[in-house]
Amino acid sequence: MTVAPVPNLNPDSRELVASIFEAVEGISAAFPRSLFLQRARDGGHARELWDALVAADLLAIGVPESLGGAGGGLTGTTAVMEALARKGIPPLQYSLTTFCREAILRHGSEQQIKDHVVTSVTGRRKICLGVTEPEAGTNSFAARTYARKTADGSYRITGQKVFISGADESDHILLLARTAPPGEPLSRRSGFGLFIVDLSLPGIELRQLDIEWYAPENQFEVFFDDVEVPQDALIGTEGLGFDHILSCLNQERVTVAAWALGLGEYALQKAVEYAKVRAPFGTPIGTHQAVAHPLALARAEMEAARQVMYSAAASYDSGVDAGDQANMAKLLGSRAALAAVDSAIQTHGGSAFVYESDVVTIWPMVRILQIAPLNNESILNYISERVLGLPRS
């Protein structure tokens, strides 16, 4: 797999990225894109892919060596996701688990870190994220899921979350719930709790959503009917749950950028190879600028987004607030990837829509990344207000 250099990384990080891409070569040989798509069609899961990630120690990337991990920080987890997506096999469960454990690393107790972070290194812990609600959407301040504290210190959780990816494969969910009673105001620093909840507890029900996106991972509605969770399920400080999860969103933004850009690269390479050999009028269609220029522009835009992405990861790993770069990486990466996929579809013409050509199969996932986990319009609001200093929308 040919990978362009990343000038804004130090030599150690560049070596780490290169070693990760090399490891993914072996994984993709054992679990190729064709098997990924077959699992999606059959409604199954990519368990072999998860096992291969564990065997290659890639789940150890991002966890400090002092906890039995391999280090590498966000730069490492970004490289894992980009490399896998470039092969057409991006595991959403990897992104979710690494993001969720970051919140626990930052705000959890020693025991919580031992229970939920250390165990993730060997693949024994899979975590999904529960934030979005049917009525509130991405407006968490309109959340209705309520965690009521009881006299003995435990919590009773009632409510509903939606678009919860990988809930059926996960053993725990990182759940954002209001701890302020219904009707009381919420803010970034008051009224929320962040909980790590065992999905096998009584009162939890999963309902699968019918979403077609050519991936062996499913989305669910998750219902909580007076679910009792122990006091030690609370991550960090009661009331600060929203603030706790916000502190980790930069990692999610960068990982999503890697996911999108990897798939964009996968689509672009398919288009380039097709444009070299498809010759209905005697010469390859790649000789025509109407075909070549969109592909060339996709390469330039994706490479620019990639530089921002790794710069954001490096800043995050150095302890700098990488919010501006992380948001820009997600915005630029998802948009550039979508343009690349659209160009690949246009290059293939009608054959792009034949399942076996595996071109239109890329589009739904990349299109979803324009609106999830945060829509690009919200990111533009962030840039307008936080970077440009314009009045709040």
TrEMBL record:
Its cofactor is FAD. Residues 241-387 form the Acyl-CoA dehydrogenase/oxidase C-terminal domain. It holds the Pfam family Acyl-CoA_dh_1. The keyword Cytoplasm does not apply. Keywords: FAD, Flavoprotein, Oxidoreductase. The keyword Oxidoreductase applies. Residues 40-117 form the Acyl-CoA dehydrogenase/oxidase N-terminal domain. Residues 128-227 form the Acyl-CoA oxidase/dehydrogenase middle domain. This is Acyl-CoA dehydrogenase. Belongs to the acyl-CoA dehydrogenase family. The gene is fadE.
